[in-house]
Amino acid sequence: MDEPIIDLQSDAHFMGEALRQAARACEAEEVPVGAIIVREGRIIARAFNQVELLKDATAHAEMLALTQAQEAVGDWRLTDCALYVTKEPCPMCAGAIVHTRLARVVFGVRDPKGGAAGSALNLLQFPTLNHHCEITSGVREAECRGLLKNFFLAKRAEE
User: Fold this and answer.
1) For the residues of 43-112, what is the DSSP string, one character each?
2) Phi/psi at 158 (5° precision)
3) How far apart are the first and last CA of the chain?
4) SS3 of 89, please?
5) From start to end of the chain, where are the E strands?
6) pTM score, two decimals?
7) Among residues 29, 30, 40, 62, which one is catalytic?
8) What angle (nearest 5°) sits at the alpha carbon of residue 121, between those of residues 48 and 132?
9) How far apart are CA 34 and CA 16, in angstroms?
10) Is 29 a catalytic residue?
11) Span 109-124, pLDDT tens digits
């Protein structure tokens, strides 16, 4: 019997890297969201939520990863890059994603209350904006949802 081929370019593989970042956030007692940015099949940025750690409301995983990726590329335009993030981007992050002109956004779990990639609203494909991103959702959704669910259950138990 043939061994399954491990596709190191697959969405599931890259989401696994974002999940590792989300686990780091959880260890730091941050909301467990992780993000990576991929260019030409290589990870050029890795980040996790650091809002509490940095005392900065803008320190979402996506925002931190975008900054790293821009430094790696040497330009603010990320037109040939893809973002992998465990939770659907919020409006702030979606705005930054559009402005940096990311080609693609892949996320794990939807955010029906505040997601800006198709759940509550869709800024990534908003008709009047100058850039639109390809969106793929539901990649390793159960794992992404589980991290968030367990984190908030533990937080509620502390109260």
Assistant:
1) EEEEEE--HHHHT-TT--HHHHHHHHHHHHHTSS--TTEEEEEEE---HHHHHHHHHHT-SEEEEEE--T
2) -70, -25
3) 53
4) coil
5) 34-39, 42-48, 81-87, 104-109, 134-137
6) 0.93
7) 62
8) 75
9) 10
10) no
11) 999 999 999 999 999 9
